[in-house]
């Protein structure tokens, strides 16, 4: 009997492999025929295409080289010859992100990653109706009005971080100390999202030392150590074969992350239901209210998936943005000084006052997001064969549209869009916050100035919260400390783009912190 089962399993596995192979060959032939006229580099490897170059290079560097040489539309090959189209043409970007957002869902590999780590939440779901239903559950808690009411919590967690850094200085009996920023930024982000979204205190900022914690460990372990071959194989293959996310140590880490986030989310939801706070201003209060008013209450699994998503997104993106902004301020002392003069006048806990009184602070944050977007590559997939219009014809032709075959992977490299010298001038690669003030004064605006939070109906609904969180933290820190950097820092590709000391394998940003 066991022999028969083995044969049946072998037959089934062979059938699955054959179907996959036939589908891949058909897709490669079709896409090659339709995309043949697009310019792009010759793949250095028949097996891996350009994947190793994308993995091992400075984040975004291959795209910069390709688009400088080939123009706004570039075709290149990934693993097993599957074709990818990189797009920086502004007309095409509008068509993909805004006008026809639901025609271009997230790539299968990206969706598989979100499902494996977070569940079937708002980052995973596709289709207009399904996405809008999930968005209605979360959006009220992340509106500018809701964020305004959460400002006191953001000031409180920021003050806790200041208190811990003051204790570090006091223990050293000094006004100056080198502090590892990335770890504290991550814990600040977790405490803030826990308090503001779920009335839950992870209690990281009440600890004088960064002690081990299961949640922080799984989040760091999953996305903060990409310097190994297994991570390369997974990143190269999950576009074509998403089940690879379940394999090996990385697969175990993914399952552990989902389990840990789910356990915390379940505990939060149970406590919130028991208390029954429908009138609060936190995300969980809005979710309770929406759930009670819905004709069909959300299932526990759906709610937990959203909570996993909020915790993970609030941790990954915010910790990276905070680290990069403090790094840029540390490298530009005059800008740091000028912003400090702005924030010294903030005496009340109000995001409205910060928005009104600190234009240079906002400009510095936008400049950080421009040069250091947390997610550098915006990946989509054509759900059907479609014509995409272009601003400019393909080089060597008069065609102002391209035919994209169904299933083709599309990528929008934000580093190219955000550093376009035709938009930003010859100093596009330089951190210069004043450019935003100059553009506002002259009423100069281009398409897609800032795609860090994407745009259109699938834009990040947490933008207002994220901007307020970082602004309030910067106001609080700059009122108490100054920052300098004595190390050579480089960007590296993790789940998000993180800083690290050049040559190291994990995120690191030691800054010299001086008490004012």
- Tell me, rounded to a whole number, the average pLDDT: 88
**Total helix count?**
20
CATH fold group of the domain at 22-106 and 376-418:
Uridine Diphospho-n-acetylenolpyruvylglucosamine Reductase, domain 2
Structural class: alpha+beta
Strand tally, please?
11
- Sheet bearing the most strands, described? 4 strands, mixed
Low-confidence region ranges? none
CATH class of the domain at 22-106 and 376-418: Alpha Beta
Q: Tell me the fraction of residues in β-strands, as a range.
A: 5-15%
Helix content: 40-55%
The strands making up the biggest β-sheet line up spatially as 1-2-7-4
Provide the gyration radius in Å.
24 Å
Between the first and last Cα atoms, what is the distance in angstroms?
77 Å
Tertiary shape: globular
Proper CATH architecture of the domain at 22-106 and 376-418: 2-Layer Sandwich
Overview of the molecule:
The chain is α+β, with helices and mostly antiparallel strands and 516 residues long. It has a domain at 22-106 and 376-418: Uridine Diphospho-n-acetylenolpyruvylglucosamine Reductase, domain 2 (2-Layer Sandwich), CATH 3.30.43.20. The protein contains 20 helices and eleven strands. The protein has helices at residues 2-35, 51-56, 61-70, 90-99, 108-117, 128-138, 144-171, 181-198, 214-223, 229-237, 248-275, 283-293, 300-331, 333-343, 351-357, 359-371, 414-418, 421-424, 434-441, 463-478; strands spanning 73-77, 83-87, 176-180, 377-381, 386-389, 401-404, 409-413, 481-484, 489-493, 497-501, 510-515.
């Amino acid at each position: 009997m066991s022999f028969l089962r083995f044969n049946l399993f072998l037959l089934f596995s062979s059938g699955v492999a054959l179907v996959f192979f036939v589908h891949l060959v058909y897709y490669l032939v079709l896409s090659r025929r339709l995309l043949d006229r697009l310019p792009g580099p010759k793949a250095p490897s028949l097996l891996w295409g350009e994947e190793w170059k994308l993995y091992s290079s400075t984040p975004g560097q291959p795209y910069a080289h390709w688009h400088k040489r080939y123009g706004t539309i570039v075709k290149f090959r990934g693993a097993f010859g599957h074709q990818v189209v990189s797009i920086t043409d502004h007309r095409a970007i509008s068509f993909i992100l805004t006008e026809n957002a639901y025609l271009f869902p997230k790539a299968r590999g990206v969706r598989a990653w979100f499902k494996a780590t977070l569940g079937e939440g708002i980052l995973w779901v596709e289709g207009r109706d399904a996405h809008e239903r999930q968005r209605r559950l979360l959006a009220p808690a992340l509106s500018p009005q809701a964020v305004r009411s959460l400002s006191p919590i953001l000031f409180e967690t920021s003050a806790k971080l200041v208190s811990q850094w003051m204790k570090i200085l006091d223990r050293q009996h000094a006004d100056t100390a080198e502090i590892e920023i990335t770890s504290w930024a991550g814990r600040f982000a977790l405490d803030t999202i826990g308090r503001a979204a779920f009335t839950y205190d992870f209690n990281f900022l009440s600890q004088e030392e960064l002690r081990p914690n299961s949640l922080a460990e799984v989040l760091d372990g999953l996305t903060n150590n990409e310097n190994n071959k297994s991570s390369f194989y997974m990143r190269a293959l999950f576009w074509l074969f998403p089940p690879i996310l379940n394999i090996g140590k990385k697969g175990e880490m993914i399952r552990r992350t989902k389990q840990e986030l789910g356990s915390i989310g379940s505990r939060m939801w149970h406590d919130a239901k028991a208390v029954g706070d429908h009138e609060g201003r936190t995300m969980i209060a809005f979710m309770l209210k929406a759930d009670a008013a819905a004709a069909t209450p959300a299932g526990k699994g759906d709610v937990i998936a959203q909570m996993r998503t909020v915790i993970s997104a609030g941790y990954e993106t915010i910790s990276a943005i905070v680290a990069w902004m403090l790094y840029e301020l540390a490298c530009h002392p005059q800008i740091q000084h000028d912003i400090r003069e702005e924030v010294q006048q903030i005496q009340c806990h109000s995001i409205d006052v910060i928005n009104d009184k600190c234009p240079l602070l906002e400009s510095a944050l936008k400049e950080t997001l421009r040069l250091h977007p947390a997610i550098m590559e915006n990946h989509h997939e054509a759900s059907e064969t479609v014509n995409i219009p272009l601003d400019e014809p393909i080089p060597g032709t008069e065609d102002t549209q391209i035919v994209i075959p169904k299933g083709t992977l599309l990528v929008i490299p934000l580093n190219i869009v955000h550093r376009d010298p035709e938009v930003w001038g010859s100093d596009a690669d330089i951190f210069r916050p004043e450019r935003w003030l100059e553009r506002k004064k002259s009423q100069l605006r281009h398409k897609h100035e800032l795609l860090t939070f994407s745009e259109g109906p699938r834009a990040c609904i947490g933008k207002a919260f994220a901007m307020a969180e970082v602004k309030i933290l910067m106001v609080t820190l700059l009122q108490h400390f100054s920052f300098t950097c004595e190390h050579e820092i480089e960007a590296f590709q993790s789940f998000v783009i993180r800083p690290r000391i050049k040559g190291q394998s994990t995120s690191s940003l030691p800054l010299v912190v001086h008490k004012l």
